[in-house]
Amino acid sequence: MQAGIAASVANDIARLLNAARQGTARIGARLVRSSDIAVLVRENRQGELVKQALLERGIASVQKSRDSIFRTREASEFRAVLRAIAEPGNESALKQALVTELFGFTAQRLFELDENPTLLERELEAFHRWHKTWHTQGFMPMFRQWMLQRGHYAHLLALADGERRLTNLLHLAELIHTESRLQGHGMHALIRWLQQKAEAAEKDEAHELRLESDENLVQITTIHKSKGLEYGIVYCPYLWLERDPKASTWFSWYDADTDDGVSRLQAEAFASDAARQRFREAEQAENLRLLYVAVTRAKYHCTIALVSGRIPAPFSYYSALGWLLFGKLAQGHEILSKLLTKGIQADERQTLMHAQLQRVVAQSDGCISHESMPVDDALISYQPETGEWQSSIRHYTPRYKPVPKVGSFSGLASGKEDERPDYDTLAWQTPVVHETLRTAFPRGAKAGSCLHKMVGGVGFYPAAC
Predict the structure, then answer these.
(1) Biological process (GO) annotations (predicted)?
(2) How far apart (Å, rounded) are the C-alpha atoms in residues 83 and 92?
(3) Is 16 a residue whose pLDDT tops 70?
């Protein structure tokens, strides 16, 4: 269900961007851009579904996440590459490295390696060179050599999510280099360190995914992180899906029956019905606040997905969005409850929901529309324009005239610069009230030399003379 909605949202974004290419989708006088669009999700896992769906349609996106860099696909593939470099004579490790997307070998190219010993020997020699560079000069020189010799910069950037992959790879290289310099790890020790970091659940800000670029990319972010931000066009595909407000082993709840109100930490096994009810009310209030945040992020257009019909148990239709739309209806309780054998059936529930949505549309004075989402729609591809881009050098035009300086060839040869102060320091400042002429006199060797020369040429004779 979630993957199908992500695909439908990605198709709709592809339609919008294709319409912009044809000049029919505009915001004011300008065409719609990818950077105008944001997809708001509740969990990073949902963002991954949307990101993958967009990628399948050729749409680049950026997801703001706090996931660990060591758990990315690039980290897993880079470990395979480093293992092959650490063991350059191991053909099995070599082939595992070559089939990663960092190298991009296909099954046909691997077959050619098996059939042509010359090609295999060439690959083994390349890994031997990288192994020698790593052993003699360190990790970072080897990494740069590997990136440049195989053209990995151009290879990765040619992919739809190339900036994301390249950013992850460079981030990994930086962390590995730092670890090797601080701890002095060898090749296999660094590979084990990468594996341990991937399996560990520790949180470190330095290990969080870095933002590759947000220039002309579809934004994918959680509702929490979108607070205070504004986007031109917003998609909210998962507002209908909320976690079950069932308390876990321990939960906190606010006890308002006391004089000042107290937040309590409660064990589920010993919790009272009142405590569980307060916990559920607090969760529902938080969901309403998140709903308000989500629907108020759009400046021009907001698309909200809502499910209806038969959905397998234990799904519950109750959500902040469902309560807002259907909670006040006469059959609101039945609509928002779980699908049971006895009670309202799926077809009747769907009819009631659609009827209510049509009433909302009729009362919106043309500001709201409602249409069925084609879940099984064919994939719509987006082909961005690839026009030639000419680079140019920006020329600096000074706004201030250069100040003439007096110098000599001997001064330049000796490395001495003109020590004359600028005009600001030459200006005489009137002593403030609490200063005397002695304390207001400029400091420094030059001022002292000047005073010495002036006083040295003055004769100390009686006034009568």
Answers:
(1) recombinational repair
(2) 10
(3) yes
Structural contact between residues 229 and 222, judged by C-beta atoms closer than 8 angstroms:
no
264 CB neighbour count, 10 Å cutoff: 14
Q: What is the per-residue pLDDT across 385-412, written as a single tens digit (0 to 9) for each?
A: 655 556 677 777 777 776 666 666 666 6
Among candidates 92, 73, 36, 44, which has minimal Cα distance to 156? 73
CB 64 within 8 A of CB 220: yes
Tally: H helices and E strands in the chain: 18, 9
Task: Give residues with Cβ within 8 angstroms of 427, minimum separation 6.
Answer: none
Mean pLDDT of 355-380: 86
Q: How high is the pLDDT of residue 314?
A: 60
What pLDDT, on the 0 to 100 scale, is given for residue 276?
Answer: 79
Query: CB within 8 A of 89, min separation 6: which ones?
Result: 124, 128
Sign of CA dihedral 451, 456, 457, 462: positive
Q: What is the rounded distance in angstroms from the CA atom of residue 276 to the CA atom of residue 287?
A: 17
> What is the spatial distance between Cα 360 and Cα 357, in angstroms, rounded to a whole number?
5
Q: What are phi and psi of 253, to 5 degrees?
A: -150, 155
Q: Is 295 exposed, middle or buried (0-12, 13-18, 19+ CB in 10 A)?
A: middle
3-state secondary structure of 204: coil
238 - beta bridge partners? none
Token pair for residue 247? 């308390």
Q: What is the pLDDT of residues 280-294, one digit of tens each?
A: 888 888 889 999 999
Rounded-to-10 torsion of CA 358, 361, 365, 366: -110
Q: Give the CA count within 13 Å in the CB-facing half-sphere of 463.
A: 0
For residue 306, give the nearest of 221, 239, 220 by alpha carbon.
239
Closest Cα partner for 100 from 114, 80, 85?
80
Instruction: Report how far apart, in Å, the C-alpha atoms of 49 and of each of 27, 73, 311, 389 are.
Output: 27, 15, 20, 33
Q: Which amino acid is at 313?
A: A
| DSSP H/E element including 166 | helix 162-183
pLDDT at 58: 87
3 state DSSP class of 286: helix
Domains, the chain, in order of start with CATH, read 2-64+223-245+276-362 (3.40.50.300), 69-207 (1.10.486.10)
Q: What is the pLDDT of residue 427?
A: 47
Q: What is the mean pLDDT of residues 141-147?
A: 93
Burial profile 14-32: b = 16 or more Cβ within 10 angstroms, e = fewer: bebbbebeeeebeeeeebb
Element (H, E) at 82: helix 73-86
Q: Looking at residue 192, what is its pLDDT?
A: 92
